Amino acid sequence: MDRLLDVVEVAELLGTSVRFPRRLIEERRIEYVKVGRHVRIRESAVRALIEANTVQPRRAGSLRAVA
């Protein structure tokens, strides 16, 4: 079973302020779990968010000259 993280732990994991994971929750951009009145985020949901927003580098030959 995945570990359930609170917003402080998610912020530390992402290297952001607590405001960022709260905004992700408010905008429903990340899956979360309600435990009573507490909000928890699965560790796998944080990994999925990181994976979904990872930008791959371009290959050296794929750059076009900008005129």
UniProtKB/TrEMBL annotation:
Domain Helix-turn-helix: from-to ranges: 4-53
UniProt KW keywords: DNA-binding
Pfam families: HTH_17
SUPFAM superfamilies according to UniProt: Putative DNA-binding domain
UniProt GO molecular function: DNA binding
Name by which UniProt lists this protein: Excisionase family DNA-binding protein
Cited InterPro entries: DNA-bd_dom_put_sf (IPR009061), HTH_17 (IPR041657), SinI_DNA-bd (IPR010093)
Native source organism of the sequence: Streptomyces griseoaurantiacus
